[in-house]
UniProtKB/TrEMBL annotation, chain A:
Belongs to the GatC family. One of its GO terms (molecular function) is glutaminyl-tRNA synthase (glutamine-hydrolyzing) activity. HAMAP family: GatC. The keyword Ribosomal protein does not apply. Its EC number is 6.3.5.-. It holds the Pfam family GatC. Heterotrimer of A, B and C subunits. GO terms for biological process: glutaminyl-tRNAGln biosynthesis via transamidation; regulation of translational fidelity; translation. Allows the formation of correctly charged Asn-tRNA(Asn) or Gln-tRNA(Gln) through the transamidation of misacylated Asp-tRNA(Asn) or Glu-tRNA(Gln) in organisms which lack either or both of asparaginyl-tRNA or glutaminyl-tRNA synthetases. The reaction takes place in the presence of glutamine and ATP through an activated phospho-Asp-tRNA(Asn) or phospho-Glu-tRNA(Gln). The gene is gatC. It comes from Rhizobium subbaraonis. This is Aspartyl/glutamyl-tRNA(Asn/Gln) amidotransferase subunit C. It is an enzyme of class 6 (ligase).
Automatic annotation (TrEMBL), chain B:
It catalyses: L-glutamyl-tRNA(Gln) + L-glutamine + ATP + H2O = L-glutaminyl-tRNA(Gln) + L-glutamate + ADP + phosphate + H(+). Heterotrimer of A, B and C subunits. HAMAP family: GatA. InterPro entries: Amidase, Amidase_CS, Amidase_dom, AS_sf, GatA. This is Glutamyl-tRNA(Gln) amidotransferase subunit A. One of its GO terms (molecular function) is glutaminyl-tRNA synthase (glutamine-hydrolyzing) activity. The keyword rRNA-binding does not apply. Keywords: ATP-binding, Ligase, Nucleotide-binding, Protein biosynthesis. The gene is gatA. It comes from Mycoplana rhizolycopersici. Belongs to the amidase family. GatA subfamily. It comes from the Bacteria. Gene3D superfamilies: Amidase signature (AS) domain (3.90.1300.10). The active site is at 79 (charge relay system), 159 (charge relay system), 183 (acyl-ester intermediate). NCBIfam families: gatA.
Length: 95, 493
């Protein structure tokens, strides 16, 4: 399988990365190079093989449902590029 | 007076304990070395001298009170991937511009609890994506090694290139690193240092910037096998904050160093003999086999038939997980923001400006292979192949093999800005051909220096072990180290 320019632009939008025409062109070649490389996986017979979900077999850990942390609003927003009174500020999203 | 930076961790521990030196003296020696060398090598992206001296002073006080921890007063460098409270933590990416977390990663907290001293944060490939440390926003790290009679700058490998270079150039006593496809073992091999990627689940991932969560594992890079064992003992823990942290006690790894390997069965996988592999890598491998045989190990040929599919499967699984993990960098909660005409435009411009080329490439691949209509063909197929890769190892271990010996890398260190590699991303990916299988199967792997090539550059061998049998790797690697000796670069910086 290979990708065309329109697919590259669609994927870039899905990934929320702005790309110029020139970048999309360059990426198309690179992505097709990588997709060509991974294509060989198709020749492996995987009939009856379970996909790996956990590399170390283990039961999911459970912990008590109690509050162990909190009241750190200042810390939470400390690294925000824009914040106001412990809210993250973003451009308007509702008309 | 002897140069304190030349002491191994084990030697420094002894001198500190005997009060022959102080932690402050040791830390000051490293800070001066960094001052003199970092302009040339670019191993550190941030140095924290005030914090280091303060921590060293506290160490001296604890030593005086007889309350020294296992790493008391030992100055370490920390890969920029580990969250360190109020200190630069950016995974060497521009998108985390100015980020200083309000928390400490479990691994680094474990080190500080044992008395270690932080010298600063180490350079790395952006988000640990790379094999040469050239994708860092802060520029490439230079390998302290150069070919004989050459002034050409070489890469230290990656992604833990800053960690490996700093250890090799005596700019820290040891360093933390992480390994998703070979990022501890390949740079260790390129710099003549020892690096171990422990079993998946041995070191907590909590507070470490995520790349590919099912593959990422922290481990140390050190000057010798004993130091690597000492560091891993402190880094590893059982952590309730990481659900994949495995509930097993951490052994005293150092005890394994020096133990006999008599009667151990070492597997030699025929699939690791790849086309175009330099003759001297093959010769090094044979030398390693001979050393282990002399030490009483039994050598057996084994087959790991799905080896060649590990790298292509990795380049589906790792980018898929990365595209998901890196979705959080959107200009809202931390790091860089580039304004746009609406919120989506802001996301797209922020991510376009904040991520470098290699990171974008991998996010794109990941987004594509997870997108509707392609998931089964790529991602599901790769996860099935991953099951087969792990099964190959299980069959070998079931047949009685205790550890597997392979080359660590297909070549010695290459030049910075190598044109061939820059032109073809897949060529760069092939650097991890011997290391990536270990991540796919979640196994422990250690790279240990075994010799120099015809250019005078270090080459390493890799040992792969059963899950949670890091002790086997330490004792076997120590046999190689004893036979091969240790390797240090000629100072040119």
């Amino acid at each position: 399988m290979s990708v065309d320019l329109a697919t590259v632009k669609r994927v870039a939008h899905l990934a929320r990365i702005a790309v110029s025409e020139e970048e999309a062109q360059r990426m198309m070649g690179e992505l097709n190079g990588i997709l060509g490389f991974v294509e060989q996986l198709g020749e492996v017979d995987v009939s009856g093989v379970e996909p790996m979900t956990s590399v170390m077999p283990m039961a999911m850990k459970e912990r008590d449902d109690v509050v162990t942390d909190g009241s750190k609003a200042d810390d939470v927003v400390a690294n925000a590029p824009v914040s106001d009174r412990n809210f993250f500020l973003v451009p308007k999203v509702v008309e | 007076m002897t140069d304190l930076t030349r002491l191994t961790i084990a030697e420094a521990r002894e001198k500190l304990g005997a009060k022959e030196i102080t932690a402050v003296e040791l830390t000051d020696a490293y800070l001066s070395a960094i001052d003199a060398a970092n302009g040339a090598l670019n191993a550190y992206v941030t140095v924290t001298p005030d914090k280091a001296r303060e921590m060293a002073k506290a160490s001296d006080a604890r030593i005086a009170e007889g309350k020294a921890g296992a790493l008391e007063g030992i100055p370490l460098g920390i890969k920029d991937l580990f969250g360190t409270r109020d200190v630069h933590t950016q995974a060497c990416s521009h998108i985390l511009d100015g980020f200083k977390p309000k928390y400490e990663s479990t691994v680094t907290q474990n080190l500080w609890n044992d008395g270690a001293v932080m010298l600063g944060k180490l350079n790395m490939d952006e988000f640990a994506m790379g094999s040469s440390n050239e994708t860092s926003y802060y520029g490439p790290v230079k390998n302290p090694w150069r070919a004989e009679g050459s002034n050409l700058d070489l890469v230290p490998g990656g992604s833990s290139g800053g960690s490996a270079a700093a250890v090799a150039a005596f700019l820290c006593a040891g360093a933390t690193a992480t390994d998703t496809g070979g990022s501890i073992r390949q740079p260790a091999a390129f710099t003549g240092t020892v690096g171990i990627k422990p079993t998946y689940g041995r070191c907590s991932r909590w507070g470490v910037v995520a790349f590919a969560s099912s593959l990422d594992q922290a481990g140390p890079i050190a000057r010798d096998v004993r130091d690597a064992a000492i560091l891993l003992k402190s880094m590893a823990s059982v952590d309730a904050k990481d659900t994949t942290s495995v509930d097993l006690p951490v052994p005293d790894y150092e005890k394994a160093v020096g133990q006999s390997i008599k009667g151990m069965k070492i597997g030699i996988p025929r699939e690791y003999r790849v086309d175009g592999m330099p003759e001297e890598i093959e010769a090094l491998w044979q030398q390693g086999i001979a050393w282990l045989k002399e030490a009483g190990a039994e050598i057996v040929d084994i087959s790991l038939p799905h080896t060649k599919y590990a790298l292509p499967a990795y380049y589906i699984v790792a980018p898929a997980e990365a595209s998901s993990n890196l979705a959080r960098y959107d200009g809202v909660r931390y790091g860089l923001r580039v304004d746009g005409k609406d919120i989506v435009d802001m996301y797209e411009k922020t991510r376009a400006a904040g991520f470098g080329k290699e990171v974008k490439r991998r996010i794109m691949i990941g987004t594509y292979v997870l997108s509707a209509g392609y998931y089964d063909a790529y991602y599901l197929q790769a996860q099935k192949v991953r099951t087969l890769i792990k099964r190959d190892f299980e069959l070998a271990f079931d047949a009685g093999v205790d550890a597997i010996l392979t080359p660590a890398t297909p070549s010695s260190a290459f030049g910075i800005a190598d044109e061939d590699l820059a032109a073809d991303p897949v060529k760069m990916y092939l650097n991890d051909i011997f290391t990536v299988t270990v991540n796919m199967a979640g196994l422990p792997g250690i790279a240990v220096p075994a010799g120099l090539d015809h250019k005078g550059l270090p080459l390493g061998l890799q040992l792969i072990g059963k899950p949670f049998e890091e002790e086997t790797l330490f004792k076997t690697a120590h046999v190689i180290e004893k036979a091969a000796g240790r390797f240090s670069p000629q100072k040119w910086w």
